[in-house]
Each structure stands twice: as C-alpha cells, then as structure tokens.
Amino acid sequence: MEEKQKGMWPLVEKYYQDYGSRARELKKDGIKFMGYICSFVPVEIIRAAGFVPFRIRGNVHEPITKGNTQLETIACPFMRSCFDLSFKGHYDFCEGVIIPHACDSMTRSYSVWKYSLGLPYSHFVNVPHTVNAASLQFFEAELNTFRKSLGRYAGKEINTAEIAQAITAYNQLRKKVKALYELRKTNPPLVSGTEMAKLLTVTAGLPVEEANLLCDQALDQLPQRTAPSDKKFPRILIDGACIDNIDLVQLVEESGASVVADDLCLGMRDFWPTTDVDQDPLKALSRRYLEKLNCPRTFRQSPGGSLSDDLQARFGDMGAHIKEFGVDGIIIYVYKYCDPFGFEVSARKAYLSSLGVSILYLEDEYSAGTIGRLRTRIQAFLEMMG
Amino acid sequence: MSVYAAGIDIGSAFSKGVIFKNKQTLGFCCIPSGGDYRATAEKIKKELLSKTGLSSPAPIFTVATGLGAKMVGFADVIRTELSCHARGIITIFPSVRTVVDIGDSYSRALRIDEHGHLLKFLLSGKCAGGSARILKKIAKILQVKLEELGPLSLRSQKQVDFNTNCAVFAESEAVSRIAEGASKEDLLAGIHRALAAQVNNLAERVGIEKDYALVGGGAKDEGLVKAVELMNGFNLVVPSEPLLTAALGAAILAEEMAPA
User: Fold this and answer.
1) In whole angstroms, what is the distance from residue B75 CA to residue B41 CA?
2) Which of A38, A98, A262, B197 has the smallest number of CB atoms closer than 10 Å to its CB?
3) Range of the domain at B41
4) Mutant choice from B107, B117, B126, B206 vs A, greatest count of A C-beta within 10 A
5) pLDDT digit string (tens) for A290-328?
6) Mind spelling out the 3-state secondary structure of B57-111?
7) Which CATH architecture fits A2-162?
C-alpha cells in the first residue's frame, strides 16, 4: 500500500539521481537519442526525425574539470557544466548535439561542442533575437534548414504530418505540467517545489510518451494527498535561467517557504507556451519558440513608449503568474556571467517592485557549495517577509 | 516571573552574548570563537549567568544568531544576524536607517525602518573580500596590534593607491607597496580607503538614508570609520560596543518571544 502511495516518485528519484539511465536502457533496444541544450531547440523536429530529444543537463555536485580545458571560466557556469559532463562521456548515448543561438555562451561555444565531442551529428539553430514579421519568416526558413539537415542525417525526409504529431505530443505534456501546477495554488501546496523541480528535470531526458505517462500518474496521485500540515509558508516564485538541479529550491523550502511558481527554463517559461495546431507546423513552431517563449535572450520591443509599457511587455506574464499563484516573494537567481539575465536584473526588480512583492536577488555560480552559502540570505529574506 | 533572555551570536572570529531582562542589559561577553562552537556557546552561557548574580541556573530563553547559530545547542529560536543587527542598532540609535556590519567573513549592508525591521539587505560576495578579514592580515604583515591600525592610519600624510578587493591578493599587494617604500601609516590609509569603497558600495546598493551606522569588528577601527566618513561627507554613528549589536538584537527578540 505504501509503495502504491509513493506512485511514480521512486522512479522520478531514480531518473533524477542517474540522469540518462533510462536513455542507456532504451538505447539497448535500438532507440536513438539526440542531445540538445536550452529551451530554444525545437524538440518537435528532433522527435519527428525519429530521435528522442535529450536535454543535456549539468550537475552542481560535480566540479567542472575536463570542460575547463576547452572553455574559459568567463563562459556561463551552467553551460560549462553541461559541456563538462558531455565531454567526460556522461551522455555518450546521444548521436549528436544541437545548440541554439540563445546566448553568447552557447553561440560562441558551438564549435567547441562540435569538435571536442566529435559526435556524428551536430547542428546550430540560428534563432533570431527580435520578434517581427521578418525575423519570424527568417526563423521559419531556419527551422526548415534544420529539418532538412536532421533528415539527411536520419536518412529520411521529415514530413509535415510527423512534425504535427510531435507537436501534439509535446503540447499534451505542457498541458499536463500546467495541470500539475494547479496543485501548487492551494495553501499549503499539494506538491512541493522540490518535487516539481525533480519531475520536470527528469521529463527532459525521457521520450515524450514516458514523460506524459509520469505526469498522468502524478495527476492521478497528487490530488489524493492531504496537505502535510495546516502551516502556511511564504509563497515564493523563483525567477532565473535554467535550474536543472533541485538544490536551490530545496534550500528555500528547508528554510521555511513554499516554492509555488517560477520563471525558469525547466518550468513555466518552457512549459506554458504551447504550439498552435491550426497552421503549418513549421510556422507554428517558429511562433512558439520566437514569439511565445519569453526569455531575455529575445529582445521585445515595447508597443507603447513608456518604461512601464516596456516592463509590462517583457514581464507581464510573470506578473500574471504572481497573481494567479498568490506569490508573496520573488527570488531572482542569476548565474555569474549570464549576460541575458544579468543585464535585465534592474528592469526585473523595477517591474516586480511595482507589484509590491518582496524581492531577493542572488548571484551564484553553478555549484552546490556556493548554493549552501546563500542560506543566510534566503533565511533573512524570509524573516524580512515574515 | 519573567525569564531571562539571552542573545548569542557565534561569528567566524568572535562569539558574543548579551543577557537581558525587563528591557535592561544585565551583562555581556565577547570571546574568540575558536574551533568548537558548541563549547564556545556553553562558555558564553556560563559567563552570562554569572553576570546575573544568580547562584543557581535560572530559566533562560535564548535566540541564537550568526554563522554558528545552529551549534548553540540550548537555543530556543534561531534568527539570522541580519534581523538581529536591525533590532540591535535601532535600540541603541533610534535614528539609524542604514547599517553596515563589517564582519570577519562578510560585510552586510542593511536598510531598516523606525521599528528595526529589515527593509533591504545585501551581503558582500561569497569570499572574504570587502570584510574585515583584510585588516587582520595587514596587522600580521605589519606586526602591529589590531587596535593600532586606526591610530596609525589617521597619521598618514600621503595614502597609497590600493586596488585589490580580494583579501588574499591584498596581502601580496601590501607586500609590494612595502617593497616600494610605503610607510605603515600610508599603506594602512590606502587599505582603509579601498575597504571603505567596498563598504560604501554595499551601502549605496541598499540605499543610504541617514543616520548611517557602522557595526562589527571593522567599526572598532577608527581609521576605517574615518575613511567611510570622508567618502560620504558626513559623520557616521558607531556604538560603543560595535561587536555586540547582533547579540543585543537577539536578546531583545528573545525577550519578546519568551513565554510569559
């Protein structure tokens, strides 16, 4: 009975602790994996080509060693950790690696990935930095180039129906994740931020069908939970880039808060926008990734002329989530040398202050050791809110 | 009968304690933290008890704070040093709105309201850069006592340019300046100015609102206080026992939290 109550969590734990273990199992059955980094790679096209898209993850507990022989420490520590693990062979079940034109650290290191790893396939997806008719047209053509390139490698032509099918599967996953987030709206939430972070990290390394299944099981099981206690903790939203380790979320929750929402790549940023199904799949994908995926790497021009119009255009979605999830405080968490987020910190602070929520800004490296040192700041932030 | 309230602040260099009852400080102590924080906390407790003049152990409600707060085995509540500093300083100087604590491992800038509630805070980086650690290192290099640093610095005729923010690299920069013939006085004045810039950088980022107080070990160094004052163009306030602010704040919180 107890095992049944645990449901899929032991499996999530296993996949989280040994990320890539399921891929290694499936590879034995002839299933092919294609590595990628960042939310800007259209996984639907990889899937349509017959590969399982595998999101390359870093590890805050593993010191970056070999990776530093190819990348200097001015490069983003998250990306360096991802590269370090790849270079050490942790993800050698992947046949290739796909890097998007997301931030400078990724763009400038593409050749390092390509030549150091020496994988059979690699591709650079040129994502424009602005959103307008011309850039959307360009991006659609670029996605077509990617489709052809990957098709050549796969030895097949990737047809529209296959892309449409993959779009449906990933839209389902995103809708399920959204339904799981509903369970975080209660006070206290039915699912902890730590559990969600684990689950979402794990889904990025699985075939979409298996990810969908895990979410289905979570959706079956979680609503039957009774809240662990009546105790209500401050409700926190974490805002930042890609957090693919639970350590920060866990530290915040251990300090006496509930992480109920986020603005993160392995979170609401990526799982909220779905792809439209009523138009040409490549056009729809270009819109999803360029127009809907809201990351500071994409420059958004303000429709109005004032600063508040500008902030609303850039961060309005986060503002809506703050209301929807009853958020009391925001932790802005930025990796050292992260240009896209780093430049935006003051704008984000200005927008969030105008909403009247408490803000804590943390700059960090990508390592468990430095996360621990943030404890005092997080505790003081919670004391300040309390 | 109300209980005694104690605030224990275990820092990386010194551990401090204040015992409190009916809003009055009955006694305090400050000892080096050493390598066993549990034992240090017990030692402070014993010393504080002796200051109450009680012959037998009395019930004490304790709030622990600081880096080693978790090691205070008898603590009833733990609060961060930021909240404790805020409460401590407002009790000593009700007019203070900006505080920088220049500690051994960090410097911390705080903005507080008239009730001593924390509005904003910022800690220096993850390393000891910007903390008072550099002063200990320099004292060692110059073979002078910590309390001599301030008076020497104030006698400087021509401070040297000192650029390094890192406490470790600062040591080699100091040695280079000595090799170039800089006097102790001028070298110290240069270091104080460099550290003052870091202290002020933190304060500017939380927003300076008068009165502006310096606390912590660094505030005992009048050369550093003067350097921060010169940078701002106005006088700062410094408590007579700047190391004790967080312990005092913890004791005040303890008295408020203690069951009646």
Assistant:
1) 10
2) B197
3) 1-91+243-260
4) B126
5) 999 999 999 987 777 888 889 999 999 999 999 999 999
6) CCCEEEEEECCCHHHCCCCCEECCHHHHHHHHHHHHCCCCCEEEEECCCCEEEEE
7) 3-Layer(aba) Sandwich (3.40)
A9, with CB counted inside 10 A (0-12, 13-18, 19+), is: middle
Within chain B, which residues score under 70 in pLDDT? 1-2, 55-57, 126-128, 165-167
- Verify that B211 and B117 share a domain, yes or no: yes
The answer on B144 and B201 residing in a single domain is yes
Distance CA A51, CA B206 (A): 50
Supply A95's token pair.
């046949």
Are residues B203 and B255 both part of a single domain? Answer: no
Q: For position B190, which CATH number holds?
A: 3.30.420.40
* Residue-wise pLDDT tens digits, A17-26: 999 999 999 9
Do A383 and B121 make contact, defined as CB atoms within 8 angstroms?
no
* B122, B210: one domain: yes
Please tell me whether residues B51 and B113 are part of one structural domain.
no
Supply the ipTM of this predicted assembly.
0.81
What is the CB neighbour count within 10 angstroms for residue B183?
A: 16
B interface with A, Cβ–Cβ < 8 A, is 67, 79-83, 117-119, 121, 123, 126
Q: Which residues contact B249 (CB under 8 A, 6 or more apart)?
A: B7, B65, B83, B84, B85, B86, B87, B88, B89, B91, B116
Tell me whether residues A384 and B123 touch, CB distance under 8 A. no
B114 and B41 in a single domain? The answer is no
Whole-angstrom distance, CA of residue B247 vs CA of residue B118: 16
CA distances from A49 to A117, A143, B69 (A): 22, 13, 56
Overall domain count for chain B: 2
Q: Which of B83, B119, B126 sits opposite A383 (nearest CB)?
A: B83
Domain identity same for B106 and B87: no
Return the domain boundaries, chain A.
2-162
B98, B143: one domain: yes
